[in-house]
Automatic annotation (TrEMBL), chains A, B, C, D:
Gene3D superfamilies: 3.40.1190.20, putative 5-dehydro-2- deoxygluconokinase. Keywords: ATP-binding, Kinase, Nucleotide-binding, Transferase. Catalyzes the phosphorylation of 5-dehydro-2-deoxy-D-gluconate (2-deoxy-5-keto-D-gluconate or DKG) to 6-phospho-5-dehydro-2-deoxy-D-gluconate (DKGP). PROSITE patterns: PFKB_KINASES_2. Its EC number is 2.7.1.92. Pathway: Polyol metabolism; myo-inositol degradation into acetyl-CoA; acetyl-CoA from myo-inositol: step 5/7. Belongs to the carbohydrate kinase PfkB family. Residues 13-318 form the Carbohydrate kinase PfkB domain. It catalyses: 5-dehydro-2-deoxy-D-gluconate + ATP = 6-phospho-5-dehydro-2-deoxy-D-gluconate + ADP + H(+). This is 5-dehydro-2-deoxygluconokinase.
Amino acid sequence: MNALPFDPTRPFDLVAIGRLCIDLNANETGRPMEETVTFTKYVGGSPANIAIGAARLGLRTGFIGKLADDQMGRFIRGYLQTNNIDDSQVTVDHTGAVTGLAFTEIKSPQECSILMYRDHAADLLLTTEEISEDYIRQSKALLISGTALAQSPSREAVFLALEYAVKHEVVVFFDLDYRPYTWKSAAETAVYYNLAAEKCDVIIGTREEFDMMENLYNEPGADDRATAARWFSRQAKLVVIKHGGKGSIAYTADEASHRSGIFRTKVLKTFGAGDSYASAFIFGLMKGEDVSTAMRFGSASASLVISRHSCSDAMPTRAELELFLESNEEITGAAY
Amino acid sequence: MNALPFDPTRPFDLVAIGRLCIDLNANETGRPMEETVTFTKYVGGSPANIAIGAARLGLRTGFIGKLADDQMGRFIRGYLQTNNIDDSQVTVDHTGAVTGLAFTEIKSPQECSILMYRDHAADLLLTTEEISEDYIRQSKALLISGTALAQSPSREAVFLALEYAVKHEVVVFFDLDYRPYTWKSAAETAVYYNLAAEKCDVIIGTREEFDMMENLYNEPGADDRATAARWFSRQAKLVVIKHGGKGSIAYTADEASHRSGIFRTKVLKTFGAGDSYASAFIFGLMKGEDVSTAMRFGSASASLVISRHSCSDAMPTRAELELFLESNEEITGAAY
Amino acid sequence: MNALPFDPTRPFDLVAIGRLCIDLNANETGRPMEETVTFTKYVGGSPANIAIGAARLGLRTGFIGKLADDQMGRFIRGYLQTNNIDDSQVTVDHTGAVTGLAFTEIKSPQECSILMYRDHAADLLLTTEEISEDYIRQSKALLISGTALAQSPSREAVFLALEYAVKHEVVVFFDLDYRPYTWKSAAETAVYYNLAAEKCDVIIGTREEFDMMENLYNEPGADDRATAARWFSRQAKLVVIKHGGKGSIAYTADEASHRSGIFRTKVLKTFGAGDSYASAFIFGLMKGEDVSTAMRFGSASASLVISRHSCSDAMPTRAELELFLESNEEITGAAY
Amino acid sequence: MNALPFDPTRPFDLVAIGRLCIDLNANETGRPMEETVTFTKYVGGSPANIAIGAARLGLRTGFIGKLADDQMGRFIRGYLQTNNIDDSQVTVDHTGAVTGLAFTEIKSPQECSILMYRDHAADLLLTTEEISEDYIRQSKALLISGTALAQSPSREAVFLALEYAVKHEVVVFFDLDYRPYTWKSAAETAVYYNLAAEKCDVIIGTREEFDMMENLYNEPGADDRATAARWFSRQAKLVVIKHGGKGSIAYTADEASHRSGIFRTKVLKTFGAGDSYASAFIFGLMKGEDVSTAMRFGSASASLVISRHSCSDAMPTRAELELFLESNEEITGAAY
């Protein structure tokens, strides 16, 4: 059990808003991208990955976003539909914007990097006119991710969606997902992240992401408990701070903390760990599991995805997740 | 008496942030600008005018803003200094920005218009790096005005100043001052106005400005009491809604409402009415007057300014204001 | 007599293309602009000034340009009409552009400076669609000035006008009029100046302007005769190089050179010297005078204008010019 | 033999300037890109392809261009070096620009399309400072292509290179290569294409490209002989007009015309036909072949490339070209 007030009468479990893009993952791994020759195309973008993961696990899921009017955009729509994600709120740009791209380079499990194409990306052209109050109030939860705040008009669209969510008591998850290349400065990022975060129920991010949000305001920083307390003084009921390989720690408003462990796996690449964690963690919470169990779901999903080639297409089904949990042991006791 | 908690130990009464620009008022009045030949130069910009008015009335005042590195910018700084406004937080742009201009046309007291030059204006280039937490916490009150939210990086600078003000219990006045020409869309405006207003103690605007803020969120609108209630549910303690020639109405969190009347005057132009009202109203509140008395100060100051050629240079001193109040009668009873 | 082949059958003597803007000249002279309080409004912009000067002297003149849809734009159109300049090719912007401004500061006759407002100026929005081949071929001569080459789409419009002029044997005057603030770099300027100049019949500029054009191409530079020869190898028939207070030198394709002297005058400011020179010089050439006489006209006109407050409104009529020439003596013998 | 005056004492045969980018060709052909899953990476861009083709055939080749500071940029440099193209004038952007991309879709040999990523492309950031007069005068010929004229500062860099080429009697080939997506309007394109073309010795383009150049100037258009004559009145010595599947026609300044035929091949896709034609045609001319023979080389090279998967990597060596010519018959007699 957890304290999040999901309204059981709503038709959608989770609506995600924001980035829909394309990953082009190098097929030849273990080498720099200068030497890779072929790439495989997948749907990508943090909220897209989380929505896909959530849908695979069985949540009734919708998406609010904007696609380029090209083959890449149509590929993404087809993939959403195939995964049973409602795409009625996914609009199409007609101004010549393109689909954002992420080329991945997998030199080794520890050395992964991404080459981004984000200029004139269609997803950042979502407008307030495309946000339906009626749609949002049909969902138990809304997922926003930080990249959609990076530019206008997408930023305003997300703030409007957030306002509707608050008004209609939709539980809001904020996956910080900070990607410096789409922002003008760290200060700009911190301002809008803070304005959004103070209205959210669950905030999930890395220690570095929380530091970025606190530095601008001269907060002392780097103390997980103080960070959590800061957000509990606003609207947050649950704050998850990720420490990379050292695992994660979740704080609840009752001052309790919960540490997640990890599952051993043969790591191919680290991409997708955060998104798969978030999707299974949200799934767990929405199924009424307690925070620790939901974190365990998250860790298991992450272990599955980082052993596979893609982020989105690698997301496990509920059966796969359960099988994995039954047949693998969590390693606890990470200390930091 | 009023409910605003001004901390008497602070050295500054009022710090204003935002636009500093130049008014060029046609000397030949009663005709279209096509036929005017000479112009007189004054300091302008809503927060600048309010700071000048407040300083003339005796408040210890400071300004946070940015000037162009040119003769217009230096003229503004000189004028602030002459009016005893602390300019230690007024920085200078070095990227080639210009000073915003407002050419005024006075066809008749009822037909006044402004021709704006706001492209590449220095005041909108204020950055978060130029906001001092220490300076803000030395003031009893902070005045923000809507124009400074129109563009990045000034927008982020104002949000940071606002956060510091909240943290240090500085009373925040928000003069909505909505000028469509610097904004991309009404939706963009409404998003940032709402994000700012929900952190402010006193919100002053016209009925149309409040409508603009409510329309985006599908609020029913146009009901003053409902508008005030909406903001009392956030941080506001006082909401002033202006109805042009019909006067203003102020709501306090105790559900009381206060109507202001007007003073008869020989109107030259309507420019500056709002800024002079705000400066004397704030002065009244900070001197511990009750809301109705402060509104009466505002109306008197407005009457003085609209009978004179400039906005800033026409602001009355305390002696002038008192003399006017003694020798003129307020007309009450506006009904709406 | 001069070698320029003006076609006597054409209805227009001179069509100018490019900048139409507003000068705001400080009424209080002999001080920095920080201390000036009032300004007088005049039509300005190099090609506008030259067209006005030429029309005052009696040439049948037209203008191709674009105005802002505001009071400043309408003031300019009225002034063109009053001065008998055909404005049928002067279009109006409907995208919100403004009228370019030039605030002048006259500290002393030797210390004059200009504060420009050129962001989003309507004149630079002239498009190729607004250039009429039929109009251009009705003129004996076309005047282009460098500022119109500074930005797209005005730049393309001028190149198209130039192509029509060449096709229909319209004599092209190029007043270099280099204003750094509208250009991105000296290299960009040099490229387009050279592409335009190589199609022109008469090129008029300062030594510094010709240097700027030659530096990029690694030409040795600073030798007037070599500069002239470079342009004679293209299309030029007459090259005028101005050396400020030292007077000007004109080269004709037959290798002859002509030096102009100056007239003593009580100088108020130096603005407008070049434009008034150009207008009377062109007038002289079009009336069939030899180069030296035309230069004498130019010097006389310049002397008149620099003793007066404006650039455009100060342009002499033919009667004024003749009276001045009769009653003043040219000082020759400038050596450089 | 042909009339082009290649200076035999120069160390380079051909220097190309402009676009260096990446092609991502769908591996799954015969279907829309929505259904393709993997892509293979090649060097692309018209001048890059022509330089690669020329180098493969044995010309001593150099390149002037700019690369992104990323894995794609380094891949391109490596490929140029492997193909013996001098890359000493290929600079690296340090402002965060990306490598231009072209995703290709091959539905059928007749239905090929390209999805371009050209926002913030590094190749368009080449500046005049990066153009070496000394390098250009070391080459017998310079190849420019139209895309490099699309934006500043690349446009100015190409005009400077062109000026150096004219000054040092480097033969200039202009492959029009008109790609609408990088231009603001057809009028803008036509202006700069014309300004460049009038300085070139050999102009190669499709009928549609020549029409675009003539439409703006109200030329009657669509008559090949008139088109050629127009350019012979400037600097051109050879004009090649391509009519797609109907073959090409070349005009020489002596009024002779030459028609090229085609070679039968199993067409995989049409991309690369123009670039391979140009590279072998230039090779033929530089080896002293007459125009008809050079055109035959071009047609043979095009036949080879359109039967293969890539554009650049498919370029034949001299041995491959000769073998093809020996073993295949040209089909002549195209009539239009």
